[in-house]
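Convert to structure. Protein one:
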Amino acid sequence: MAELLLLMAAVPSVGLALAAGYAPGFLPLALLAYYTYPLLLMAGGRLLRGRWRERLPENLLRHPMRLPLMALSLPYPVYWAAAGALGEPWLQAYGAFLRGPGLAIPLAVLVLQPLGMVLPPALVSLLVLAASFGAEWTLRRTLL
């Protein structure tokens, strides 16, 4: 149990997959940790706010796609610390996270694996991101 908690802190997607495969009773706690642990990481990132902002290019700080791209390209702990350091509101950081690995990894572990479909979490993250952009584009086209 302690090993799974340490693994969840370092690499949550692997910890979640191991919990689903080897310790199903641990799965609700693993999901809770997967979605609440970022609050601690963002708070830690806010302590580094000044140091990170000085080293990043200005166009990255203002780019509208910075959070979804960061969520897809950075490891889980680094993304949350960076979002906190950049001073992002936590709802926007969670929104970007849910567009990619935040929804895709639990989807891959909890839905696709029991159905016998084994897809890499990165591919599922890209598919979820594409589906969210497609849904957003469709809503904008129909409502505007």
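Protein two, convert as well:
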Amino acid sequence: KMVVSQPLLYLGYKDNNVGLTGEKHFRKETLTEVLLEIMLSPSSRLYNGLYEEGLIDDQFAASYTGSRDYGHVIIGGETKNPDELSEKLKEGIENFQKKGLREEDFERKRKKLMGEFLKSFNSLEFVANNYLAKFFQGVDMFAYLKILDEITIDEAEARLEELFRDDNLALSVIEPA
């Protein structure tokens, strides 16, 4: 229990596909980003369903963090019903695994991310931070566009199966004090 206005729910999925460096790691990161966009961005069916049911608010988020030695996805935010949200998120992810991704969603999200990347060049801070971060990872930040152009829906579905496994799931609920 903590001093919060509403309960907080976070699902964490450990990434067991570690040990990658350079462009292989960058490709895995990019695939995961596309996958999270398809499944849990504000324009996704799952997100909108949860929002309309009042289980999430506009601060709900999903993100991936990883390096050579670790990786994880964190999904969550404030909710009035953590148990119901947890079940619906797990069901939603399982539904994506069973039915697969829709080609039109995959293509739309790839193009969205390409556009956002290009638009980000209006920010000197973005260019400097990303250039240095990718330089120290041993990759060219401009490889992002190449990777987005090359990845396939089959790779994204394989990543979906690999990453979202119940045996790699940790659940955290913080209740108001």
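The mean pLDDT is 96. Strands lie at 8-14, 61-66, 71-78, 169-174.
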